[in-house]
């Protein structure tokens, strides 16, 4: 379990670091979008803050995963971003859905492997 956790954590960190660094340094040419995804993408770009914010979160969580520090916090912080990626790919860009599902499954696996750290979040005080 420990080796699997290390592999999944490192792979997820590498994915988030690669995507965020390529966004900030404009390393990948923008792919041509069509239909509803293009309208959604135009809206994201028009907001001017949402993509840089998401990519900054991805970068910081990627560093956390690669170095193995604050992994529990990084799992919580990146979870809404991953849910958004999963839903965008499900509804607007199904060709990229397998990658989104793999990242979602990786995050769930990391949460499961560190479950003892999350138990306090689900305690009922009464």
Automatic annotation (TrEMBL):
List the residue ranges forming a coiled coil, or say none: none
Predominant location: membrane
Spell out the subcellular localization from the entry: Membrane
Which terms are listed as keywords in the entry? Answer: Membrane, Transmembrane, Transmembrane helix
Pfam families membership: DoxX
TM spans (from-to): 7-25, 66-91, 97-115
Reply yes or no: does the keyword Transmembrane helix apply: yes
Highest taxon of the lineage: Bacteria
Q: Entry's InterPro entries?
A: DoxX (IPR032808)
Topology with respect to the bilayer: Multi-pass membrane protein
The protein in question is named DoxX family membrane protein
Q: Which organism is it from?
A: Flavobacterium flavipallidum
């Amino acid at each position: 379990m420990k080796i699997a956790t290390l592999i999944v954590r490192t792979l997820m960190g590498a994915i988030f670091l690669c995507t965020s660094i390529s966004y900030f340094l404009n390393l990948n040419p923008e792919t041509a979008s069509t239909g509803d995804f293009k309208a959604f993408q135009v809206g994201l770009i028009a907001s001017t803050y949402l993509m840089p914010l998401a990519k900054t979160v991805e970068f910081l969580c990627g560093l956390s995963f690669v170095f193995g520090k604050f992994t529990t916090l990084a799992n919580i912080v990146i979870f809404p971003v991953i849910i958004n990626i999963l839903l965008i790919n499900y509804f607007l860009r199904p060709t990229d859905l397998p990658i989104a599902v793999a990242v979602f499954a990786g995050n769930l696996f990391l949460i499961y492997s560190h479950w003892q750290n999350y138990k306090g979040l689900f305690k009922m005080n009464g």
